[in-house]
Amino acid sequence: MTAPDPAPRPDAPRRRPLWVAAGFLLTGLGVLGLILPGFPGTVWFVLAAAAFSRGDPRWEAWLLSRPVIGQLVRDYRAGLGMPLRAKWIACTCIVVAVAFSVGRIPVLIGQVGWVLVGLAGVAYITMKIPTRRPPTPGA
């Protein structure tokens, strides 16, 4: 038996346009992530879907109906993880981005911090996100 949904907050309807605006902003960042190497895309689409779900379910349905994007978000929500190839690409992009940018940081502590951020990203992808295996033929 599930707990009943809490009563909606009285200010919730006023916030819906803000959630929709946030959804569009996050969708734009996701599109940039598809274009720019080293900039993630999927995370922004996941966040956009969450924002749209709070603002207007029609926009969430629109995002989820996009051919590639919708599948990525649905897979994330279902806990299916990332394909191994996508993990390799993501980790490689993080390493390349950190390697090319760390020299531009003038302070040693900033450089160390940036490398640690990159390592944390790679560790999260490799250890926390499940690897989705391809479906077996005949299954």
TrEMBL record:
Keywords: Membrane, Transmembrane, Transmembrane helix. Pfam families: DUF454 (PF04304). Signal peptide: none annotated. The keyword Ribosomal protein does not apply. GO terms for cellular component: plasma membrane. The chain crosses the membrane at residues 20-52, 84-102, 108-127. The keyword Transmembrane applies. This is DUF454 domain-containing protein.
